[in-house]
């Protein structure tokens, strides 16, 4: 890494992008061997927030009969309102562009307040059935709170909670248990809901980009959209009416592939290639199965090792192509 930085600085100097004094100042600064602990501190803040919210949950579980429901709810509400008070007090207010806190500590305070709000509403419904048999409202209320806080306080983590809450309200379970049990595969209706929700998120990104509303949230929405569309299409490729979903997956792969270059997102690029590759193989097998080309399957199994070696080489070349086209031209 140090050699790369030195070469980049030398390249900037050779191309007259920086002066000799700037070049020497950069070398002197790097010679101090200073390093940033910014990421480490953010990780510790995030870990402390998780431990705090988890500790409250454990406290409620272990002392529910001793403390009492009213006292627990009152404590939760008090802590939540205190967190929100300091967040509102130290934020500049809602704006369409990115407006972060002056102190990043408050970002984690917002996340803590939202998680405690979800805990409060869930516990209220579980113990007192506040929303009656309308259990979806117990999910919808924290979702609305999360989305409001995400846009007001400009917090991507809270936005992820809000999108997850919307998915849960629609019946899409995102916890590991349901993922490993293939709930979407067993229930075709959920795959349709997932596809519709994923396309809706994509349309929302296009709309917010047009009106310049929190455009830095786009990657979060696009990531959820890609996963929902990709998984839903692959599920339905294994169903009877598979052809339309193959076309939808092909169009989505082409769109997200080009978009990943535009926004320079390696994660979006990798998952797009992955979903496209898996979907292409399923589509290819379904086509062969529909024309009853049985003789080809023996040839396919014989050439499978070479096929996977070729795909690995192709994937590596795609990664190199992505890095080449998204690298900073100023230091090349």
Automatic annotation (TrEMBL):
The keyword Lyase does not apply. The keyword Transmembrane helix applies. The chain crosses the membrane at residues 43-61, 67-88, 108-126, 132-153, 158-174, 189-207, 219-237, 243-259, 266-284, 296-316. Keywords: Membrane, Transmembrane, Transmembrane helix. It comes from the Bacteria. Residues 12-158 form the DUF2157 domain. This is DUF2157 domain-containing protein. It comes from Flavobacterium taihuense.
